[in-house]
Design a protein that fits this description.
heterodimer, A: about 170 residues, alpha+beta, Pantoate--beta-alanine Ligase, Chain: A,domain 2, three-stranded antiparallel sheet, 4 helices, about 45% helix, rod-shaped, B: about 425 residues, 2 domains, two-stranded antiparallel ribbon, about 55% helix, elongated
Chain lengths: ~170, ~425
């Protein structure tokens, strides 16, 4: 008589054997999801910076009456507001833009731009705190519950009658 | 089990890649139409800036054509004045001058006729060209922009908003300023007074530049600024005015002297000649015979009379000389909008629209919701099907520009206009 194989308890053991694999799989899924969110955040930020640079190029030296309250070339007041108006809805796609994003104008040396006429290689710089809500993956990919992303695009306004842009 | 796990991970990865691909496609779509709008707006603004420079050149040519006319007109007037004086004198030398003047008349008449025909004809032609140029270049630039867009994105549409198509932004006659500049050129050129034939001399010693200055108001009435011009530099005008006033005063004295004492005491007005009335002021009831050079309490305002008659005599002479006022339909032009560097008439806007793939949008939204565990339900701000951009053309008189010193009234005569991209009007997206 052949010895009887003991088969009781096989299923739970096999199940236990697969737990590490499932954990890895689930972890990979979470990691992938967080990477995807950050990638989308990066792309949206890049896009927002491109739109900001385009808008700044158009409005910083524009002489339209609605911008007349802010001197030509000054990246604040109505001119900065026009840029924000275009960019914040885009940034809202990835974070709470008004609280978590900063839009700054910097020159080639990284210093603040007071007037684009006086700045060399002015650029618009956007920095945002993108939330990391995915459990476990956030600990691996982010610092705390968010990750700082930044993007910078050059601004080339014409119409302030300086050396750049129109060349006059 | 492993295979199903691989399938699961594979599906997740594929879905995410698809999502990112969709997002990138939307971003690219938006940036692409933004670029098309910028390119079209820039092209159209550049065309308008070119037109503005062409118009400024037309204006400068108009000034250049008027400048010699001032010289010829004032020289001719001075010659007529000298000729009339010489021919009215019995002096043998002046008779010689008179003969020279008589022989020179056909020559100066031809010269004057030619310069007047040339100037007025060219002014009218250049003005017509200037007033139509913006509409023409706008249509041409739009056609080019449409062709470029059709080649790059056949399913995209372009809508242009250009006020210059309906009404030329250069719609204000600017003959007055052109006249001032032409006179400045004439005075600075040193040509005034050099149209006399060799043997003819300026016997009266007239100041030809002064005559040119006074002619300005007749050649272009807009330059006079509402003040009636007068040719006080011509002795004949002043002489005629003084003579007329002397005669009027004499007739007035006669009228007062003829009035009886009784009439005067009763306050009955003497018969004052009609043409003298504007220059007579009487104190009613206090008139006494023999007082104040026989005019009683009436005074004759000689200065006012001379002034008025100088005006009349100047206008009569200008009319007989064939000088007409500036013709508004044929003058150099300035922008209709005084504040041209920020006015809406110097701005062209375009909107480029291109449909977004709706399936891609739906897929993107679904995956976004799935991946975010249902929390990411923000708007569709990446889904943009149209973009607007404006271009403006302006005179670079701002701080730092090499044309900053060009005063505003001279800017329509200087071909330094340039263009820049500008924001779209509020609500149209920037």
């Amino acid at each position: 008589m052949a010895p009887r194989r003991l088969s009781r308890g096989v299923a739970p053991v096999e199940l236990l054997a697969y737990i590490p694999l499932w954990s890895v799989m689930f972890g990979a899924f979470l990691y992938n999801a967080q990477v995807n969110r950050l990638s989308v955040g990066r792309e949206v930020l890049e896009h927002a910076a491109a739109v900001a640079a385009d808008t700044a190029t158009k409005v910083l030296c524009d002489s339209a009456p609605e911008l007349a309250g802010t001197p030509l070339g000054r990246p604040d007041g109505a001119r900065a507001a026009a840029v924000e108006e275009r960019v914040l809805p885009l940034l809202d796609l990835v974070t709470d833009a008004r609280r978590k994003c900063r839009i700054a104008y910097r020159d080639g040396d990284g210093g603040p731009v007071r007037r684009v006429q006086d700045a060399s290689d002015p650029a618009v710089h956007i920095e945002c705190e993108v939330p990391c809500p995915i459990p476990f993956a956030a600990q691996a990919l982010c610092r705390g519950q968010s990750l700082a992303l930044a993007s910078s695009h050059p601004v080339r306004p014409a119409g302030c009658d300086m050396r750049m842009g129109g060349g006059l | 089990m492993l295979t199903s796990a691989q399938f699961f991970l594979g599906a997740i990865s594929l879905g995410m890649a698809l999502f990112r691909g969709n997002e990138q496609a939307l971003v690219f779509h938006q940036e692409e139409i933004m670029g098309h709008a910028n390119a079209a707006a820039s092209r159209m603004a550049q065309a308008h800036a070119w037109a503005a420079n062409a118009i400024a050149n037309n204006n400068a040519i108009s000034v250049a054509l008027l400048s010699p006319r001032f010289t010829v007109e004032s020289d001719t007037l001075a010659m007529h004045e000298n000729g009339a004086f010489a021919c009215g004198s019995g002096n043998p030398f002046l008779q010689k001058v008179c003969a020279q003047y008589g022989r020179g008349i056909p020559r100066i008449t031809a010269k004057l006729g030619w310069i007047r025909t040339q100037q007025t004809g060219m002014w009218r032609s250049l003005s017509t060209l200037s007033s139509r140029l913006d509409a023409v270049v706008s249509a041409h630039a739009e056609a080019e922009a449409r062709a470029e867009l059709a080649a790059a994105a056949p399913d995209a549409e372009l809508v242009v908003s250009d006020p210059a198509r309906q009404r030329s932004p250069w719609g204000r006659p600017n003959g007055g300023r052109a006249c001032e500049l032409a006179l400045e050129d004439s005075l600075a050129s040193g040509t005034l007074g050099h149209a006399f034939p060799l043997l003819m001399i300026n016997v009266l010693g007239l100041s030809v530049p002064a005559i040119a200055g006074q002619l300005q108001g007749f050649v272009c009435s807009a330059a006079a600024g509402g003040v009636q011009p007068r040719l006080t530099s011509l002795p004949s005008i002043a002489k005629k005015a003084r003579r007329t006033c002397r005669e009027l005063e004499a007739r007035l004295r006669e009228a007062v002297q003829e009035a009886s004492y009784g009439e005067l005491r009763e306050g009955i007005e003497p018969h004052i000649p009609e043409d003298a009335k504007p220059y007579v002021e009487c104190e009613r009831g206090t008139r006494r015979r023999g007082r104040s050079a026989a005019l009683g309490a009436c005074t004759f305002q000689r200065d006012k009379c001379v002034e008025d008659n100088t005006l009349t005599a100047s206008a009569d002479l200008a009319k007989s000389f064939g000088l007409l006022g500036g013709d508004a339909s044929g003058t150099p032009l300035a922008p209709s909008d005084e504040n041209w560097n920020s006015g809406p008439s110097f701005r062209v806007c375009v909107e480029v629209s291109r449909p977004v793939d709706r399936e891609a949008t739906r897929l993107s939204r679904a995956i976004k919701t799935l991946v975010s565990f249902g929390t990411d339900t923000q708007g569709d701000d990446l889904v943009v099907s149209s973009a607007a951009a404006c271009g403006r053309w302006y005179f670079p008189d701002g701080e730092g520009s090499r044309f900053a010193s060009v005063e505003k009234s001279r800017q329509p005569f200087v071909a330094a206009w340039t263009h820049a991209l500008a924001g779209a009007p509020t609500g149209g997206g920037r």
